[in-house]
Amino acid sequence: MARARLCSVCDTPLQLTHLHELTGVENAWHVQLLQFPVLACPRGHDRREAYADFNVDWSEYLGYRAPIWSSRKGLLRRRHVCPRCGMQLREPALGQLDLEAQGRGDFRFSVVVRGPMRRCQSCATSYLAASDSAEVFEALADALARGRVKRY
Ligand SMILES: [Zn+2]
Ligand SMILES: [Zn+2]
Prior knowledge:
- By secondary structure, this protein is of the alpha+beta class.
- It is built from 2 helices and 8 strands, in the order βββαβββββα.
- Helix content is 17%, strand content 40%.
- Strands 1, 2, 3, 4, 5, 6, 7 and 8 form an 8-stranded mixed β-sheet that branches.
- The site of one zinc ion has 8 residues, from loops.
């Protein structure tokens, strides 16, 4: 068993805790991280990611594996189409996406993204434009910064 990570202030071993809610903002994007796992000092000093590179793992999961990005097709008129059913997506409107993010093992939590997104009328799924991903990830980083969650 690896040695427990210690608090940088009081040397108490950090304990796995789930934060009820972290919120972040970037431009039009609002995000919530719900039941986010962190290693925390019981006295409230340090908060660190659940394991080394947890933040890398779950953001890659969201970036590559979650079916949330719409693609653009067409040579002359570029248009956004649904990755599932190929229907043309509607113009962006304020919407909400409820997602599950996960890292290695059992580490998972819920992510709520609110902002301008395109809805497929055929299969009732909402998508973000791939070009919005940088701002969405800035909002997620803002949530970690506001929650004072440090690197492992
Ligand atoms: Zn402490
Ligand atoms: Zn669809």
